[in-house]
Amino acid sequence: MSQFPKDFLWGAATAAYQVEGAHDADGKGLSVWDVFSHLPGTTHEGTNGDVAADHYHRFKEDVALMAELGMTSYRFSISWPRVLPNGTGEVNEAGVKFYSDLIDELLRHNIRPMITLYHWDLPQALQDKFGGWAGREIVDAFDEYARLCYQRFGDRVDLWSTFNETIVFIGMGYFTGQHPPKLKDPKLGIQACHHVFLSNARAVKSFREMGIKGQIGFVNVLQPNDPISQEPEDLRAWEIAEGIYTHWLYDPVLKGEYPHDMLEMAQAAFGVPEFHPGDAELLKENIVDFIGLNYYKREMVARNDDVQGFDLNTSGQKGSGGGMGFKGLFKIVKNPNGVYTDWDWEIYPEGLTDAIGRIRHRYGEVPIYITENGLGAKDPIVDGAVLDQPRIDYLSEHIRAVGRAIELGADVRGYYPWSFIDLLSWLNGYQKQYGFVYIDRENNLARKKKLSFEWYQKVIRSNGDEL
Ligand code: BGP
After folding, report:
1. What are the beta bridge partners of residue 314?
2. Per the annotation, where are the binding residues for substrate?
């Protein structure tokens, strides 16, 4: 008997910049990623999302494949500059129509849409105008954008999330300089992150004021960190890593306030976040309905006297990255007993059960969706067939881990592997594949079902019994 509830959602996920392509079609404005990815040296071999999977033009074919797969929900994001080319003001009706048609097509196939409002592709116009997330004006701009989406799509869509993985677009955008706007300015980053929390709260408030029928949540990376030893310095480093990766990102949206210890540390070190009158109340009064969890790996953490920066493996050659950490706080080290992907991500399914437990322990019984989970790999092709058995092994172990969390009482309502189809990996190009559907980039982006496609079909049909 399956542990998964009868109405459990079996989905898959994508994000606009990574899948749509059509980066300048039909009146779309530029996003910060359209600009950043064209700067020399920013991404793996200069890859970008100009064409991506061309989902913009082929969404009907893709939705038909989703239906064949048996998906009951699809998580995708809206490209803000596609609907508001300047970030605010004039609406691009052609962009609105694309999403409207996509939603209708999904509903025609009984696939429930889950919309992410922000998956990193900020309108470049707002970056230029007031520094994007660093400017307080972003809170009004995001609210205008969110209201437009609720107004146009809220009659047909009842699952929404405001943000995807703030730790990544703020951390890599403002602390390590690997995403736009390419800054290494922690003070500005902490303030920009505050504006994200305010924007979330305002958009949640608007959602409720407008009476949209449905639920609105926030999507975070779920990354259990474990200390490499029980030495006091490693334990302290681990506490700080947990404070940053988890408490800082989850508390403001689930408790409506910052973790006090971390807030004191940030204010002592940098004098931010700066609160305006009303900020604390806005956060407190608008906590989200659910939390979306993106789980890929855990990290082992140690004291750090030497490493500054995050030298990522973006090639898929094991061991090609370098040190990762913030000097004086913590660093990420390899687990000597761990199993790793070619991108040096630890494969650790039990971490998913544990980390859900940690969330319940800190925040109580909040509804949970697993909004991303998957294996990035260069899939083997044998006689034209894409034999991605390692992905099947990875996903089946992780679905078991979700099942165990449910047995332990967690309110997990859906599972969305990353990704439905092969798409652009932000810094790793098209060689890091995640999809159930392969795209032949040599043959007019033809779609081809992988071995995992058939396997996931069975999983869905059996409601998680056949893994
Ligand atoms: C998450 C993002 C996704 C996706 C995924 C895989 O952080 O929300 O957009 O890219 O990670 O990461 P990567 O493409 O770096 O392997």
Report:
1. none
2. 18, 119, 164, 296, 418
Can you tell me which atom of ligand 1 is nearest the CA of 424? 14
Residue 233 has pLDDT above 80, yes or no: yes
Nearest CA to ligand 1 atom 12: 425
d(CA 57, CA 85): 19
Q: How far is the CA of 426 from the centre of ligand 1 (A)?
A: 7
DSSP state of 431: S
Determine the average pLDDT of the residues in 14-32.
98
DSSP class of residue 29? P
Q: Is 68 an annotated catalytic residue?
A: no
Superfamily covering domain 9-300+348-462: Glycosidases (3.20.20.80)
Q: What residue's CA is closest to ligand 1, atom 15?
A: 425
Q: Can you give the length of the chain in residues?
A: 467
Is 372 a catalytic site residue?
yes
CB contact at 8 A, 374 and 295: no
E-state strands within 119-243: 159-164, 215-221, 225-227
Domain locations along the chain: 9-300+348-462
Q: What is the mean pLDDT of residues 218-230?
A: 96
pLDDT band at 321 (very low <50, low <70, confident <90, very high): very high
Q: Is the pLDDT of residue 433 over 70?
A: yes
373 lines ligand 1 (CB under 6 A): no
pLDDT tens digit sequence for 125-172: 999 999 999 999 999 999 999 999 999 999 999 999 999 999 999 999
Q: Residues of the chain with pLDDT > 70: what percent?
A: 100
pLDDT of residue 1: 58
- Supply the mean pLDDT for the chain: 97
The ligand 1 atom at the shortest distance from the C-alpha of residue 376 is 16
Residue 15 Cβ inside 6 Å of ligand 1? The answer reads yes
**Which residue's alpha carbon is at the smallest distance from atom 14 of ligand 1?**
425
Who contacts 214 (Cβ-Cβ below 8 Å, separation ≥6)?
Answer: 154, 157, 158, 159, 160
What residues pair up with 425 in beta bridges, in sequence order?
429
Both structure tokens of 69: 């797969």
Q: Is the CB of 369 under 6 A from ligand 1?
A: no
Angle at 184 between CA 179 and CA 185, to 5 degrees: 125
